[in-house]
Amino acid sequence: MRIFLIAILLMFISVCSNAQSFNHSKMGPRTNNLFPMQDERPPQLVQLPTMKPISVSRLQKAQTKLTREEQKLIKLARKAWDYEDDLKKEQEQLKNIENAPESSNDPDHQKKIEKLKQQIVKSQEKVSKAKAEVESETIKVESLEKAIETAKFTRQGS
User: Fold this and answer.
1) 3-state SS, residue 148
2) What confidence score (pLDDT) does residue 158 get?
3) Cβ atoms within 10 A of the Cβ of 123, count?
4) Using 50, 70 and 90 to split pLDDT, how confident is the model at 86?
């Protein structure tokens, strides 16, 4: 038991003497693992190029855009048809006024005819403008349809 007590005392004394004469230069630079330095960066791993699968969300976005453009095309086509109907009504009205014999004695008869002719010209301009818009929108829709078809078979790389 004495030997055990002496061994413990010697170890305790050696620990106390080392604690009093601690020298930082012997230890070298010390790193703190809890708060790493900003200069220290983990090693970069080699990144291999990957092939992304066909993006369903990208196709869905394109398809929703296509449906919006198709709805816009339908609205423009209805608008063009309405303008054509108005033009036909105005032309019928002009024929009726020109062929009416009782109105020929009226002094405002010629003014009404001229006014209807001006309205017909404006209506024709509206119809031609609406048809041009329908054509441009049709081209947009067709290009979107082609783009969706090609996008179904292509993959996007990273």
Assistant:
1) helix
2) 41
3) 19
4) very high
